[in-house]
Amino acid sequence: MKPFAKATLALSLTTVLLTTGCGGVNPTEVVAPKAQAAADQQQAPEKINQAPIPMKMDRKGTDVFIEMTAQITNIQIDKNVTYNAWTFNGEAPGPLVVVNEGDTIHFNLKNMDPAVPHSMDFHAVHAAPSKKFIDVMPNEEGNFTYKASNPGVFMYHCGTKPVLAHIANGMHGVIIVKPKNGYPTDKQVDKEYVIIQNEWYREKDLDDMTNGQPSQVVFSTKALKEGMPNTNGDTFTLKEKPLLAKVGDTVRIYVNNVGPNRVSSFHVVGTVLDTVYLDGNPQNVLHGMQTVMLPASGGAVVEFKVVEAGDYTIVTHQFNDVQKGAAAVLRVTEDGLDHGGKTMSH
Ligand SMILES: [Cu+2]
């Protein structure tokens, strides 16, 4: 125990003894739980669990004001596994950020972590990292301004050393910069979703992270509009609660692989990706792809038509990662509604 913790514990014991001494209650019964709680807090600040705080976003013309928190929050990643994660706003992946090409982002990072510095690296901007992606100290705030001048589906992440640990502990997410003139296929799209792939390692195990041995590889979805599903990266939610589409729909998925280490071979079983915009840039257009390679941090916009009712599994075609959880289900029905029933997934 650190000297400071010892002093605090001694002080709180004395206070409790003094205030309860003449009340007729055996002081030891009263003192033990309070003193223990104080001691626990001093000894293990990494085990705190901060309730998610929603991201704030305001717009004035092309100026967008975004406030995010760095915070420690428990995230369920598998049926029986909860991870005491380092997060943005209590979500992992963090909240979806959507801005327009040409916007100026005024970003405020509030670091609620009492012990560890954190930072923000937006892949969507041109900025000097040594000025704009710098550490924000515990219980402090940092303000940064940059322009979102490139359209696409970009990763964001904490860039504090060791970056591997900060990303693997949950500090990653996606920022979509909508192209000024849209995508040429905008009018054909009926349904839109976001899917993010990330890895989880044994909790805070830097060896597993360094050796690239994830315990789970997972998919999540983030809401593009209110009412849409918004999940953390886990092994089961998107298999049990499928995304939905209607027969004949053209479905668009904004996808990103935030890693930190694995490459994603993004594939939708039972269809061909009719149109793909690599990294989500309308100029990087490809057609008729079976699988899109997403490097760590890489994104894409993929579009495909679903012609038959049924369950379509979305995977990374690196099936050892599917074995570790990386799959989601798109359920296609005649009316686009879910009529229940167990999903068929890989
Ligand atoms: Cu961090």
From TrEMBL:
Give me the reactions it catalyses. nitric oxide + Fe(III)-[cytochrome c] + H2O = Fe(II)-[cytochrome c] + nitrite + 2 H(+)
Domain of life here?
Bacteria
Cofactors that this protein relies on: Cu(2+); Cu(+)
Q: Which UniProt keywords apply?
A: Copper, Metal-binding, Oxidoreductase, Repeat
Asked whether the UniProt record includes Oxidoreductase among its keywords, one would answer yes
User: What positions does the domain Plastocyanin-like occupy?
Assistant: 71-181, 220-333
Q: What EC number(s) would the UniProt record show?
A: 1.7.2.1
Q: Which family does it belong to?
A: Belongs to the multicopper oxidase family.
Return the protein name: Copper-containing nitrite reductase
What organism is this sequence from?
Ammoniphilus resinae
